[in-house]
Amino acid sequence: MNLLLVNPNTTAAITDRLVEEAQRVAAPGTTITGVTARAGFPYIETAAEAMIAAPAALEVIAENLDGHDAVILAAFGDPGLFELKRLLPVPVVGLAEAAMMTASATGYRFGIVSIASRMQAWYQKAVDQFGFHQRCVGFRFLDAPFERIEEVRDRYGERIFALADDLVAEGADSIVFAGAPLAGIAATSGVSLRVPAIDGTWAAVAQAEALARMVQSGALQGLPTTAHGKHSRGLPTPMARLF
Amino acid sequence: MNLLLVNPNTTAAITDRLVEEAQRVAAPGTTITGVTARAGFPYIETAAEAMIAAPAALEVIAENLDGHDAVILAAFGDPGLFELKRLLPVPVVGLAEAAMMTASATGYRFGIVSIASRMQAWYQKAVDQFGFHQRCVGFRFLDAPFERIEEVRDRYGERIFALADDLVAEGADSIVFAGAPLAGIAATSGVSLRVPAIDGTWAAVAQAEALARMVQSGALQGLPTTAHGKHSRGLPTPMARLF
Amino acid sequence: MNLLLVNPNTTAAITDRLVEEAQRVAAPGTTITGVTARAGFPYIETAAEAMIAAPAALEVIAENLDGHDAVILAAFGDPGLFELKRLLPVPVVGLAEAAMMTASATGYRFGIVSIASRMQAWYQKAVDQFGFHQRCVGFRFLDAPFERIEEVRDRYGERIFALADDLVAEGADSIVFAGAPLAGIAATSGVSLRVPAIDGTWAAVAQAEALARMVQSGALQGLPTTAHGKHSRGLPTPMARLF
Amino acid sequence: MNLLLVNPNTTAAITDRLVEEAQRVAAPGTTITGVTARAGFPYIETAAEAMIAAPAALEVIAENLDGHDAVILAAFGDPGLFELKRLLPVPVVGLAEAAMMTASATGYRFGIVSIASRMQAWYQKAVDQFGFHQRCVGFRFLDAPFERIEEVRDRYGERIFALADDLVAEGADSIVFAGAPLAGIAATSGVSLRVPAIDGTWAAVAQAEALARMVQSGALQGLPTTAHGKHSRGLPTPMARLF
Amino acid sequence: MNLLLVNPNTTAAITDRLVEEAQRVAAPGTTITGVTARAGFPYIETAAEAMIAAPAALEVIAENLDGHDAVILAAFGDPGLFELKRLLPVPVVGLAEAAMMTASATGYRFGIVSIASRMQAWYQKAVDQFGFHQRCVGFRFLDAPFERIEEVRDRYGERIFALADDLVAEGADSIVFAGAPLAGIAATSGVSLRVPAIDGTWAAVAQAEALARMVQSGALQGLPTTAHGKHSRGLPTPMARLF
Amino acid sequence: MNLLLVNPNTTAAITDRLVEEAQRVAAPGTTITGVTARAGFPYIETAAEAMIAAPAALEVIAENLDGHDAVILAAFGDPGLFELKRLLPVPVVGLAEAAMMTASATGYRFGIVSIASRMQAWYQKAVDQFGFHQRCVGFRFLDAPFERIEEVRDRYGERIFALADDLVAEGADSIVFAGAPLAGIAATSGVSLRVPAIDGTWAAVAQAEALARMVQSGALQGLPTTAHGKHSRGLPTPMARLF
User: Fold this and answer.
1) What local confidence, expressed as pLDDT, does residue A10 receive?
2) pLDDT digits (tens, 9 = 90+) for E80-135
3) One domain, residues E73 and E123
4) Contact flag F109-D121 (C-beta cutoff 8 Å)
5) Which of B117, F16, F112, F188 is a Cys-bridge partner for B141, taking CB atoms 3.0 to 4.6 Å apart?
6) Contacts of C121 in chain A (CB under 8 A)
7) Angle, to 10 degrees, between the axis of helix F120-129 and the axis of helix F95-106?
8) Cβ neighbours of B120 in D, within 8 Å
9) What is the pLDDT of residue D190?
10) E78 is in which domain, residue-wise?
């Protein structure tokens, strides 16, 4: 199975990081191709930036989709997820949606721990949009300085777990860790949290494989396999062909 | 990977049917063991019957759990699903929950087609309980006589698709087929529906494999691995040990 | 009027305690028969335990229902309440549902004070399931050690009222006290709280009497007076006869 | 026990009709005093008319409250109910609220059958305001001509039951009959409906008695027993004294 | 354009204050006539007081409506707003509704800062009633003593901004300032808050002008231009003529 | 006052049509500049197309924003509205949001009449996203063939009003007409509908003027006046400067 992991951020290093995490959880035989948006922002933090990133992600999806069985939209907040679902001929999975679904599949309520509180408005909208308002206990943000995303887990691990504990105390049955700097942290937090800890990238890989296998076995049909031939203007050819 | 498919109905023939459907979509290397509730009802139709079926299902789960990586609770309506999730040391997946999550992963709103309108109250409660109230366009029921569940698909196929079309006309982006007699019908309905058609059993297998793989790779930790040692009374020993 | 108070916990001392509280508020001429579940847990604390308790409660209900005008399901969290409502030929009332309805009947928003935070997930689900999400300000738990439930009120009374005051400060117009150790505490808290204080047991008695009187006067008809004759397997005879 | 039934409509004949229905379901020893608003409208049909009726109802409540244990606000739509609850020193019960609570206490979803579709906006707001949006399947209105409210039940009984059946087919587990001309019709509809049929007046009496008994036994304290001494202008003295 | 600003409080000084603020934001050519309720309360703080104020406000509206293009109901909490909308032949705008709509038009979630926490229940109901439950982050109240409303802004300005900052930290994208003593404070708070600050009076003027212009240009038709001729009793003539 | 009306469709004729309607309702002294997206689709019908249109609209906004006091995003469905609100230094108003707010300002529930049912999914998402789920009675679509948008009103006027009447019968207190071919139809429908009829373009102009005037008078501060200087890649310069 071939998964196309699209990073809507323009930073290739983040793509590499997420592909590495994705490979940890992928089934044997699954290949993961990482592609990076060419236009947009190094690190998306707001809904407005995500709005720019969505078609930029679609552009590189359109160029690379051939031969892939599913697409992972690899930025928590899932820019353009709903829109892509009804456009592409293969399943599309977002990090936020997959994480929240997995959280719901392991408990009743969840909390979200992430990097910076300036991302809350964008994340909150994702929670509401996917219909998880009543299941989401709330957010906690690290709001601490760091130079490279790699150092976050080591330097602030304890503090991050403390934020997660706060949310458990408020009634969270599981914790979602959001944002590339926290990718993989869930793998070491399980014991101390005593509730399931969920990583968006991992959850998205598992969901993408599940949906792709459903398609392969004929269990999921009716995805939009042919374009409508809708006339467009100014779109790159591979992208225009999808409509 | 070994999945334990538990039929909360007491009819072994239904178990066989569901295991057969489950195997169609299972990944290579996945084994599926079907077990059937010993106490309860041949075919659950109401919430009260489901209430009896839930611990009866847990009883056979407790006896057979050893060596399995995930549990599929194989009756749409998912008797005891929420409760089992926080009790068992492995992921538990329900047909209704998996189908509705898969529907949400392929579109915005879904409709549910099933067998008999006397099941609506039970199903409606499942929709609301899993938080899909705003995503569910509504129900359509076949309400037609049949002798054996095998004959339903052939005899009423066209009528069932017409019910699905009604829901698409009301705004459904995908259709969930619910109930053992409709198991597998989605595999042939995709083209005519032009929206994704989702089968609870298939969706549950895909979800169970996804969650189990997350556990295996360390991506999902924090499930309740050890019992609390809670004192109980009158429970069969294997079941008592889970608490 | 004869009310059947069923304690889904297996501890007869709790049954006695709840019957005693129930009798305080019962109308003249109302008799209250307490019965205790034979199987399950001494003190239910989680949804999974409640799932076991529900049919165990139904078992003793089925044996003792004859001659009773209504059933009180006497554990906050109301195991199996929705399910029993459409099964039994008499009204069934739960402590949580009755308390939250009474709270809604005296103000707009309410808060819930109870014993231990490990019960929150179960209680939260009850709040959501009964549709009181928007009316419930939140929870406060005592989380303090005690040996016998009788000592809680005396030893921690002040602290319990302080928790209630917190919820009033957050916008609660009334306070629900949940859990057998707090039964009756509302009777002494009214003045200091300055908002209505509601006890689940008392509220349930009042509701049960009200519904039973409606049945007696012909004002509430259409309860499921005859069983469907549904075939079952492995159920105790009195219970099987209800389906 | 003494109940004050206040008719917010200015038609004394409706008051008499409602008191008569109320007495059918009242417990032995309960007296029901009917009072009629002096200002407002003969038969309230809209929210704007209800807005006028609310203080007019309070005016006659203030004059007659002495010696009564609870107040029944006897117009479906419950003009001023929320407001009165936090003002009066005794429980206040509304027809719509009591009927919807009773419906919820006997099943999961309910439908409402009433007289004229021009009342829908007002009733819909009551449903939403009391938080029953998710529980209410919908409305059906008779919309047929009649001269005296007494003739409605006899002349249109079959048609009214057919409307109720429609709602059952849409998933209603119980039916609420709303509006004075339908008062009492539930008493004869139970059998044919096969789901509980609920009458607002009857439900309100039962609720009022239940709450009043809770107050009498000390089980419900914290109602606003003393006025705040808030200065007012232009209010009739008995009414002014309540603030 | 002529706007009728109705103060449902009986304090003329508040009317003057609100008219002054209203004139700051009014378009050139807009005149604002302030009228004050004759009956009711000097300063409404609860839902029960608002219930009295609503028809008192309608009474002075009815007397003064002639020649006005829209009505501003000038008390946050908007007593009778929904009811008046379908009664009056011109648009009616409330301070709370206009402020929350403006907040929603500038961001996703908002918080509300006001004077005294005893107003919370009334305000909360307004938030829920207008459907802004999911958009409202929460409340903060000053709860500080003052003699004249004029002094509040100067004496407590910093503290008020700190309360607003709290709500921004909890995820508010904009802040609504509610209550006459805070009227106008938003004009100086913008910079320090870094999120939009919204004043109910200003928002209401802007909305009233917008709706009135829609009517003038034929863009908004179908308002209830003629009364139904509904018979009433005991209503002042100008008011009776509206029904 | 200068309003920038941006048509996210690439068809200039639609822009002209909408500017013409906008001018009908604009206040004296308001100028309206129409600009048309250069990239995207002649007529947006789905969420995926809207996703492409959103940054294309921002591109022409960025080029033309100078000297304008507010932006009207002139396609029902409001592509990118939430995102633009927190980015641009002036108020941004969408047709769907403005229409639904105006509908809510004139009644309790509304219905939406539009052109083609293939737009329902996109529109439904807009309704849910803006929080109007509980206020929206439902949709009706014309689904009839036409050559030029100008002919729709004349050719199908009666049928369109009939669809609106259906929604009124289902409980709508006002009707929103959506889609450029229906622009202006509300001006002639008022009388026959007997409920307010609302046009998105008109409502958006009124809202844009109201918000812009609030900014001019200092009543609305805190809009994002300065860009964050966020580094971007591949964005046209005027657009990049906004971040």
Assistant:
1) 97
2) 999 999 899 999 999 999 999 999 888 889 999 999 988 998 999 899 888 888 88
3) no
4) yes
5) B117
6) 107-109, 171, 173
7) 60
8) 171
9) 52
10) 2-94+202-240
DSSP E229: -
Q: Which of F85, F202, F222 sits opposite E190 (nearest CB)?
A: F222
Other Cβ atoms less than 10 A from the Cβ of B63: the count is: 14
Instruction: Report the DSSP beta bridge partners of residue F177.
Output: F113, F199
Reply yes or no on whether the pLDDT at A173 is more than 80.
Answer: yes
Task: List the structure tokens of A134.
Answer: 């009543």
- Please tell me the distance in Å from E29's CA to the nearest CA on chain D: 32
Q: Mean pLDDT, to the nearest integer, of A91-118?
A: 93
Identify the band that residue E188 occupies on the pLDDT scale cut at 50, 70 and 90.
low
- Identify the three-state secondary structure at position A62: helix
User: Does residue E145 share a domain with residue E116?
Assistant: yes
Q: What are the residue ranges of helices labelled H in chain F?
A: 12-25, 47-64, 81-85, 95-106, 120-129, 149-169, 186-193, 200-216, 237-240
Residue ranges of alpha helices (H) inside chain B are 12-25, 47-64, 81-85, 95-106, 120-129, 149-169, 186-193, 200-216, 237-240
Comparison of pLDDT for A205 and E194, the residue scoring more: A205
* Nearest CB neighbour to E108, from listed A125, A133, A139: A125
Q: Which residues of chain C have pLDDT under 50?
A: none
For chain B, list the contacting chains (3+ Cβ pairs, <8 Å): A, C, D, F
| Closest by Cα among C105, C102, C107 to C137 | C107
E54 vs D51, D84, D86: nearest CB: D51
Nearest-Cα distance to chain C for B82, in Å, is 8
Ordered alpha helix ranges (H), chain D: 12-25, 47-64, 81-85, 95-106, 120-129, 149-169, 186-193, 200-216, 237-240
DSSP letter at A233 equals: B
Q: Are residues E40 and E128 in the same domain?
A: no
DSSP-based three-state secondary structure for D236: coil
Residues of B in contact with A131 (CB under 8 A): 104, 131-132, 134-135
Tell if the CB–CB gap between C41 and B84 is shorter than 8 Å: no
User: CA of A171 to nearest chain C CA: how many angstroms apart?
Assistant: 7
Residues A102 and A194 in one domain: yes
CATH number of the domain within which C213 lies? 3.40.50.12500
Report the C-alpha gap between D103 and D108 in whole angstroms: 8
User: What is residue B188's predicted lDDT score, i.e. its pLDDT?
Assistant: 64
pLDDT of residue F188: 65
ipTM score for this prediction = 0.91
Number of domains in chain A: 2
A190 band by pLDDT with thresholds 50, 70 and 90: low
pLDDT tens digit sequence for F29-55: 999 999 999 999 999 999 999 999 999
B89, B223 in Cβ contact below 8 A? Answer: yes
Report the interhelical angle of D47-64 vs E47-64 (nearest 10°): 120
Instruction: Determine the distance in angstroms separating the CA of B165 from the nearest CA of chain C, rounded to an integer.
Output: 31
Residues C186 and C174 both lie in one domain: yes
If you count residue pairs, one on A and one on E, with CB atoms under 8 Å apart, how many are there?
14
Q: Which residues of C touch A107 (CB under 8 A)?
A: 121
Closest approach of C50 to chain A, Cα-based (Å): 15
F78 plus F58 within the same structural domain:
yes
Distance CA D51, CA D59 (A): 13
Q: Are residues B221 and B233 in the same domain?
A: yes
Cβ count near D194 (within 10 Å): 12
Q: pLDDT band at B17, cuts 50/70/90?
A: very high
Same domain, B105 and B191: yes
Coil, strand, or helix at residue B224? coil
Residues of C in contact with B232 (CB under 8 A): 39-41, 52
